[in-house]
Design brief:
The structure is a homodimer of 164-residue chains. Chain A is an alpha+beta fold and 164 residues long. The first copy, chain A, has helices at 2-19, 23-31, and strands spanning 40-41, 47-48, 51-57, 66-72, 77-78, 81-83, 87-100, 106-109, 113-116, 122-126, 132-138, 146-148. Helix content of chain A is 16%, strand content 37%. Chains A, B: This is Quercetin dioxygenase-like cupin family protein.
Chain lengths: 164, 164
């Protein structure tokens, strides 16, 4: 676990350095009140960059959902993955990116809701220069949870041209 | 619909008047950044007081949940009701009250998560002197939705003594 964090550190340093040119964004983020505390730092290989998770509701045999507030620091993102029962994302802070396999990367903003259909590979995360927090609701967890795939490469992790 | 709003207006005026003694609370609420816009004013008989709803995700035949951000102004609350498939509440702002039939009223605060089991009658809302916003997630909507019962009376709508 510690080895993994060490491996991520150079990436985080580069991202912080890349971010300093965008003073306005950094100030806006600093003034935000978090909806939920950002929780624990994620230290597994299913993510690139610095990610925090606050588990709000574990799945159970009654409601069949799990809920977590996930914070991606600039540049951070999930690996490609899919959910056996689907997922819904509620963006509560900042600006992020979302992509389904075979489709264009899209920008997702504070206030937006994304429905990820079951068994469709996708990834989500921050933009390169702004953090993003979403509430992630795993649905139909009685069918199954997330299935993790390969990391999102630097080539795949691209801000859509039209929003630059 | 218009008739109903008119009926609620005197209640709202009384609640605003009751609230002016608590300047600190009013100021704190005013400075909060809403996570989601508060949406449309609710104008049906399933609520007492002034309530706003922002529908974030309608139910569908894939995810089996519906999601709304609901804002209760001070004194406002749902009627008693239950959900055929259960519900989960994420308190995103302020302080509220929650009660299940036969149990004590409990205070629910910003950051807390409440799981309402299926078929258990309950109500939720603001405290008498502070607004509350929660994200309400209806679960297992393929089983059924909310079943509405009688209003929460002034006698039932009580701030628990131990938190006064």
């Amino acid at each position: 676990m510690k080895h993994h964090l060490k491996n991520l550190l150079p990436i985080a340093v580069v991202l912080v350095a890349a971010c300093t040119n965008n003073q306005k964004t950094v100030e806006a983020t600093k003034n935000d009140q978090p909806v939920f505390p950002k929780g624990e730092r994620v230290s597994n290989a299913n993510f690139t960059g610095t990610v925090w998770v606050n588990y709000l509701a574990e799945t159970d045999t009654v409601h069949h959902v799990n809920i977590g507030s996930v914070t991606f620091e600039p540049g951070a993102r999930t690996n490609w993955h899919y959910h056996k029962g689907g997922q819904i994302l509620l963006v509560t802070e900042g600006k992020g990116l979302y992509q389904e396999k075979g489709k264009a990367v899209q920008v997702i903003n504070h206030g937006e809701v994304i429905k990820c259909p079951p068994d469709v590979a996708h990834w989500h995360g921050a933009t390169p220069d702004e953090a993003m927090t979403h509430i992630a609701i795993g649905t139909n967890t009685n069918i199954g949870g997330a299935v993790w795939l390969q990391p999102v490469t630097e080539e795949e992790y691209k801000y859509p041209d039209e929003t630059k």
